[in-house]
Amino acid sequence: MSGLKKGSIAVVGAAESDLGLVAPNTSPLDLMAQGTMRALEDAGLKLSDVDGLFVAASQTRMGPMALAEYLRIKPRYFDGTIIGGSSFMAHVAHAQAAIEHGLCEVAVIAYGSTQRSVSRAAASPREYNYYESPYRPILPISAYAMAAARHMHQYGTTREQLAEVAVAARQWALMNPRAWEKEPLTIEEVINARMVSYPFTVRDCCLVVDGGGAIVLTSAARAKTLRKKPAYVLGAGEALSHNTISSMPDLTVTAASESGPKAYKMAGIKPSDVDMLSLYDAFTITPILFLEDLGFCPKGEGGRFVQGGTIAPGGKLPVNTSGGGLSYCHPGMYGLLVMIEAIRQVRGECGERQVPNCNIALAHGNGGVLSSQCTVIFGSEATL
Amino acid sequence: MQSLTEKSPLGTYIEHVKKGELAYQVTEDGKAVFYPRAVAPVTGGDLEWRVSKGLGTVYSTTAMYFKGEAPLNVALIDMDEGFRLMSRVEDIDAMQVKIGMRVKFRAHPGDEKQAPYPVFTPAEGAK
Question: Which top CATH class is A9-120+209-229?
Fold first, then answer.
C-alpha cells in the first residue's frame, strides 16, 4: 500500500549542468554542483535552503557524502540509492516520503558524469561475474540486443521499426538547442551504421557524452511561493526485477509493467490521460518495451506502434521531445535528464518542441540491463 | 545449510565443469535453480546439486563485433531441466545462431586467468 500522496510535493527547480564534452579534469562533482546551483537559481532558492540530498553516480561511490562535502552543506536527510539510470526516479519517491514526513523540506537530486572525457570503461567499470564475463558480453549493449532479438522473434518487430525510434529521437533533437546531435538521420543510415551487437548498430545505442544536472523538490505548500510554476509529483512507482540479464524472467516484459500501474494508481489517471512521455531510450528497443509495459499499446505491438512517425514530431504521441539518450544527451545514468524534459514540458518551457497544453508528463527510468524500472508522473496545477 | 568455510557454490560448480559436467541445483520442491547459490531463492531453504543432461535451446542471441575479430556469439540458453544460463554457441558462425536452435553443452578449458566454463555446440535434431 503506497503511502505517498498525489501532489504532496513538486519540482520547483530543474537544470542541466554543461553537457557534451567538458574541459579536461572536470569532475562529476563539478557538474553536480553546477547543476545544483542552476536548479536552485531556477527555483529562487539558496544553497542554505537545502536540507535533503539525493545523489547517484558511477564515478563517485558515496555520492551524498561527496556532494555534501563539495558544497559544505549538512543535509538532515540523504539517500544514495543506486540502481542505475532509474536511480533518480527512485530518489523522487524517496524524497516525497521524506518531505511528507517532515524529514526534510527542500530536497536536491543531483547527478554528474564525465564518461566522454574519461571513457565509458573508466566511468562505469564492470564487475567480474563468472557466469557472464567469460563470454565477453558488451554490457549493457548485448543484453538489450538480446531483448531486441527476442522481441523480433516473438512479435515480428523489424529492424526498420527499431530504427524508427532513433529517427524520431533525432527529429526532436533538431528542435533542442542543447542536443548533442545536430544533423538529420534516416532509417537507412541507422540500419547501415557500424554493427555493434546484432541487431544493434551504433545508431541504435545511446550517446556517450558528459553531463549531469539537478532538480529541486519541496512541499506543495512551499512550491506555490517560489519562482516557477510547480511541476507536481502526481504518482511514483518503483520496481526491481533482476540484476543480470541471465536472470531476467522474460526479455520482452520489463518491470515497467509494475512501476507504471503503481504510479497511475497513485496519480488516479490512466495512460490516455498522459500528454507526453519521457522514456529512457538507452537503446532503440527500450521505448518500444516501455510503450507496451506502460499501457500505450498491447504487448508485442510496440514496433508497429512507433512505425510511421507516431512518436516523432507531429505524431499522435510525443515521446522523448528532448531528443532522448539517443540524440540529446546520455551521460551514463540518464534518468535525471529524462525527468528534466518532462518537467519542462509541464511548465511549458520547451519552445519549438513544446507539446501544446501539456498538463501531464510521464517520466520513465530504466537501470542496469532492464533491471530497475521507476516511473514518475508530473502534472501542472490543473491536474491536482 | 552448507558451510561456506570449506566449499563455495561457485567452487563446487567449477569442479563439475572441470569434469565435463554442467551442474545446477534444485530446491526442496524440485525447482531448478541457476546460478548456484548458498541458499534457495524465495524459500530460503536448502539446495541439492544435479548434473544436467547438457541439452538446451537458444532463448536469445546476439553477435558482437569487436574490432579486428570475427563476430562473437553470446546467447542465453534454456536447459531442458528448466534453468537458463548465459553462454556461447561455438562451431558455427555467430550470425547463424538462431533463437530456438537446439544446442549441447561442452566444457571450455579456460586458461591460466579464467577457470573452465560451459559453452555449447549446435545439436539439431536432439530431442
Answer: alpha beta
Whether residue A67 lies within 8 A of chain B, CB to CB, comes out as no
Distance CA(A133)–CA(B108), nearest Å, equals 14
**A138 in reach of chain B (CB within 8 A):** yes
User: Are the Cβ atoms of A198 and B35 closer than 8 angstroms?
Assistant: no
Interface A–B counts its CB contacts (< 8 A) at 74
Nearest-by-Cβ selection for B84 from A130, A194, A246: A246
Q: CA of B10: which chain A residue's CA is closest? A: A130
d(CA A65, CA A196): 37
Nearest CA in chain B to A248: B84
pLDDT single digits (tens) A291-339 = 999 999 999 999 999 999 999 999 999 999 999 999 999 999 999 999 9
ipTM: 0.97
Q: How far is B88 from chain A (nearest CA, A)?
A: 6
What gap in Å lies between CA A127 and CA A133, rounded to an integer? 9
**Domains of chain B: residue spans and CATH:** 9-122 (2.40.50.840)
Q: What's the fold here for domain A137-201+235-383?
A: Peroxisomal Thiolase; Chain A, domain 1 (3.40.47)
Q: How confident is the model at residue A1 (pLDDT cuts 50, 70, 90)?
A: very low
CATH topology of A9-120+209-229 equal to that of A137-201+235-383? yes
| Buried b or exposed e, range A215-235, using 16+ CB within 10 angstroms | bbbbbbebbeebebbbbbbbb
Widest CA span in chain B? 49
Number of Cβ within 10 Å of residue A243's Cβ equals 16
